[in-house]
Design a protein that fits this description.
Structural class of chain B: alpha+beta
Strand order of the largest sheet of chain B: 1-3-2
Number of strands of chain A: 12
Distance between the termini of chain A: 30 Å
Number of helices of chain A: 14
Number of helices of chain B: 5
Bound molecules: protoporphyrin IX containing FE
Helix content of chain A: 10-25%
Number of domains of chain A: 2
Radius of gyration of chain B: 17 Å
CATH topology of chain B: Alpha-Beta Plaits
CATH architecture of chain B: 2-Layer Sandwich
Order of helices and strands of chain B: EHHEEHHH
Shape of chain A: globular
Largest sheet of chain A: 4 strands, antiparallel
Shape of chain B: globular
Radius of gyration of chain A: 22 Å
Strand content of chain B: 15-25%
Mean pLDDT of chain B: 85
Largest sheet of chain B: 3 strands, antiparallel
Strand order of the largest sheet of chain A: 2-3-1-4
Helix content of chain B: 25-40%
Strand content of chain A: 15-25%
Low-confidence stretches of chain B: 1-21
Mean pLDDT of chain A: 95
Distance between the termini of chain B: 27 Å
Oligomer: heterodimer
CATH class of chain B: Alpha Beta
């Protein structure tokens, strides 16, 4: 494969920035030519406006901000993309996140009708994701961007949501996150070895051989628009920290386990990030695991029964690694996670503080249907993909109902089963985004598109 | 494809929620396709015979089904004086998702079979997935009664229990 053109691919697809702050701005385009002008201003080298960050290595100096952009189908339409081009996008993207809600489990409270209008909703055209090293640069960059929205409601900011990297890169519920990510052929190499096959570029980028042996995903047309692009499910996921802690407190003693161990069983890693497979009995093995070790494991053959890490644990479900699963293998359904917590650190000493907390960001893949939606329907909310899971859902993320919820912890003496718990994560917003290449952004900004 | 409404298994919620759910995990597909012509029947028969006489482990359909891990049983039958081909299977869970995965993996095999059908959807299946799904649905004979000897066991459960 020829090397990837890193200067053409949006930065957050291939690399995690590890910035402490993120701000997602939800925009609506009311005027196509103003919309184009705005898109153009993000790639024209304007020194007074944050510019779209590509995947090119930074070298010694890290920028103070990074900017990336995603368009919903409605957004592409509002920019005036011609019908034949719109028709070349995959069906689930055309339908959009609201139309696919029931399918992925966003029902009841989680349904798009109940999403706050200032989070991402069916009205969102653009999700502009700004990452910053500090709050001052974040505010400056935001002000610059807002000043470029144009006059007379040509571009409206529907709302924004801020996210913060909590100490030790923890997410709410108390776990260290950001340890496992796919390694992509031609992209930056990962610091943490993981025993998994390298993902072909076409598992995350349009225009390259994909993870399927004789099928690659059609590139939306014209190819300057589609190639080097990707898709994301942008998600706003509210976490009920009170309910989660309460669950640990009540259920752990019932099965003779301490709360920390139950928390580990739910995730697949101890809250410290140490994986259960490598350390089933303690969250702080001695000697401690190194960066090289912390993600370097598989569930098979050593833990095929799930005695260390339950087969139904969050991270084992969302990437069963080498385990045998229904379908052609776990490695064809990888996803890149670029999400950070919103809301301040939860303090169990002051429960019920009424503050909203959650996780917000982009779940990136070449096929929303075969990756994001597959994960949600089969692995998170389905229970037929691996042995012993029928009738169960992801205990951390799943659409669980106290009427029939069930979490199975296999042990050598038969399974321990926890029942009767509700869902801990509620969907509060979302958008299916197309993440165009820089070439494509230039095309979207041009008037040539209309003539095409 | 969804037998739950007619399932003889009681639909009531079990008393203890830890008991497995009442709805069988397996579903049935009874997919009856009309063959274009006697010549097409000849070719299809050759194709099916060739597939099924392949040495163990080399039958691409069996290999794909083995990989998929959701198919309990699969059989091909010719019906109504060889004017129709029936593909009958009992499978776990969600059909559309795994057909989609099947098409990603072995789309050309579907294409080879569908090319001989009178009312075939546009091909290749990898390009026309929605049409292919609609075709399967339209030609699936609805289930009026469904019985399962092990309503809560998936193929993967059985493999795990039998050490396959
Ligand atoms: C509020 C929601 C969520 C929380 C609190 C959460 C938390 C976590 C944590 C703590 C880990 C382990 C850290 C790591 O290995 O990097 C993890 C891993 C993972 N999560 Fe989530 N997650 C959430 C939502 C999601 C969603 C929506 C998806 C997919 C659609 C997802 C997919 C994954 C995957 C793929 C992994 C890595 C598994 C691996 O490669 O071994 N998570 N998550």
């Amino acid at each position: 494969m020829p090397p990837l053109d890193l200067s053409d691919i949006q930065g957050f697809i291939l690399r995690g920035y590890n910035f402490p702050l993120a701000r997602h701005l939800m925009l609506q385009i009311n005027d196509a030519s103003e919309g184009k002008r705005f898109v153009g201003s993000l790639i024209n080298g304007n020194a007074r406006l944050p510019q779209i960050t590509s995947s090119v290595e930074w070298g010694a100096v890290k920028p103070t901000t990074c900017l990336n952009i995603g368009f919903t189908y409605e957004g592409l339409k509002a920019l005036g993309l011609p019908p034949d081009s719109l028709a070349s996008f995959p069906q689930e993207f055309v339908t959009g996140i609201a139309g696919r809600a029931t399918f992925v489990g966003d029902e009841g409270e989680n349904a798009p009708e109940n999403w706050p209008s200032d989070y991402a909703t069916a009205q969102t055209h653009i999700v502009l994701s700004l990452y910053a090293q500090g709050s001052e640069v974040l505010e400056t960059a935001t002000a610059e961007l807002r000043s470029a929205f144009g006059q007379q409601n040509a571009l409206i900011e529907l709302g924004h949501l801020d996210a913060t990297d909590l100490p030790e890169s923890r997410v709410h519920f108390g776990y260290v996150d950001g340890l496992s990510q796919p390694c992509i052929e031609g992209g930056p190499q990962l610091r943490r070895p993981d025993m998994q096959p390298i993902c072909p570029a076409g598992e995350f980028l349009l225009g390259y051989p994909s993870q399927n042996p004789d099928f690659s995903y059609p590139v939306p047309t014209p190819s300057i628009l589609g190639r080097n692009g990707s898709f994301s499910a942008f998600r706003v996921l509210e976490q009920d920290c009170d309910a989660f802690e309460q669950f640990l407190r009540t259920e752990a003693p019932k099965i003779g386990m301490n709360e920390e161990k139950l928390a580990a069983k739910i995730c697949g890693r101890w809250r410290s990030g140490v994986p259960l497979v490598l350390s089933p009995d303690t969250d702080s093995p001695n000697p401690p695991l190194t960066t090289e070790q912390i993600n370097n494991f598989d569930y098979v053959p050593s833990d095929s029964s799930g005695y260390a890490c339950p087969i139904g644990a969050h991270m084992r479900r969302n990437n069963p690694r080498g385990e045998r699963v229904a379908g052609a293998g776990a490695h064809i359904h990888r996803i890149i996670r670029r999400a950070l917590p919103y809301g301040p650190l939860y303090d169990p000493a002051t429960p019920n503080d009424g503050i909203k907390r959650g996780l917000v960001g982009h779940f990136i893949c070449v096929s929303l249907q075969d990756q994001f939606e597959f994960l949600m329907t089969q692995w998170v909310n389905g229970g037929t993909f691996a042995p012993g899971l029928y009738g169960t859902k992801d205990p951390m993320l799943g659409d669980n109902d106290p009427e029939d919820s069930k979490f199975v912890l296999p042990t050598a003496n038969g399974p321990q089963i926890i029942t009767g718990f509700a869902r801990f994560v509620t969907t509060r917003g979302g958008a299916y985004c197309f993440l165009p290449s820089l070439t494509a952004l230039n095309y979207l900004a041009s008037t040539e598109m209309i003539k095409a | 494809m969804t037998p739950e409404s007619t399932s003889p298994v009681p639909a009531t919620t079990p008393q203890t929620p830890s008991v497995s759910p009442a709805k069988p995990v397996q579903n049935a597909l009874t997919w009856i396709m009309t063959i274009k012509s006697p010549e097409d029947y000849q070719k299809l028969q050759g194709l099916v015979q060739q597939l099924s006489s392949a040495p163990a482990g080399q039958n691409p359909i069996a290999a794909a089904a083995d990989t998929l891990g959701i198919i309990h049983f699969l059989r091909f039958v010719f019906l109504e004086n060889n004017t129709k081909l029936g593909v009958m299977t009992i499978y776990d869970g969600d059909f559309d998702t795994y057909v989609n995965e099947f098409v990603n993996q072995v789309g050309p095999i579907f294409d080879a079979v569908l090319a001989h059908m009178a009312d075939a959807p546009p091909l290749p299946t990898q390009t026309y997935r929605a049409q292919f799904n609609a075709y399967v649905r339209a030609n699936d004979v609805p289930v009026v009664m469904f019985y399962s000897a092990y309503p809560t066991s998936t193929v993967l459960d059985i493999w795990a229990a039998t050490g396959k």
